[in-house]
């Protein structure tokens, strides 16, 4: 009995080492744009009564959010801290990212702890930009584009012709195909029936859909048949061929040489006289008359 009491006394008087613990009640936060975001950070210390609290935002370069008892950079004036939990006011898409809460307790056995919190700011659809050609030729391939790069999550796209939604399901009888994720509307070969007003609508789960202004696409048919075009091309080729043959025959017969006509006879221009040699190279002779 005395031995058991001694063991209990030693156990009560022995120091109990408790590690610094840091955690978060919500590691992933999703909020709408222009609302408040709460980044939770909770900790318990062993002995430290005044731990140092720091918040950082991770990215290409780590930036300070809360350091040395105050907010810094773009977070100054629009954030508050309670304990180690931070609340950001009127968040935008630029605030999305991964944040890290760091607690330093020098007096504790385990003096450093941290936790990560991911913030995702949701953005409703913006008015998309639409690319619709004004004039196309019948039988040609055409591609229409629709883009909204600001919405989070990325939107889905729907194309309208003459204010009627086009089906996104491709069928063998359809003259087009639609990609609702990329916002493209493709025509393999357009016809006159495809002329009309086209607009695109972007939508996601955050807000009301947005649409671009309807643009008119006109399909023009060829005025000349293919037979006429081929016949014209062949005629031009033959004309060029005949001209080349004529030039070759003229060169072979010498009809391109220069000739002079005089007194009804052909007079070929005589060759130029030989050059006069230097008189010093000749011996002078004298003739005597008897």
TrEMBL record:
Residues 261-290 are annotated as: Disordered. It holds the Pfam family V-set. Keywords: Membrane, Signal, Transmembrane, Transmembrane helix. InterPro entries: Ig-like_dom, Ig-like_dom_sf, Ig-like_fold, Ig_sub, Ig_sub2, Ig_V-set, JAM2. SMART domains: IG, IGc2, IGv. The chain crosses the membrane at residues 229-250. GO terms for cellular component: cell surface; plasma membrane; protein complex involved in cell adhesion; tight junction. One of its GO terms (biological process) is leukocyte cell-cell adhesion. Residues 1-27 form the signal peptide. The keyword Metal-binding does not apply. Gene3D superfamilies: Immunoglobulins. Residues 15-118, 125-216 form the Ig-like domain. This is Ig-like domain-containing protein. It comes from Esox lucius.
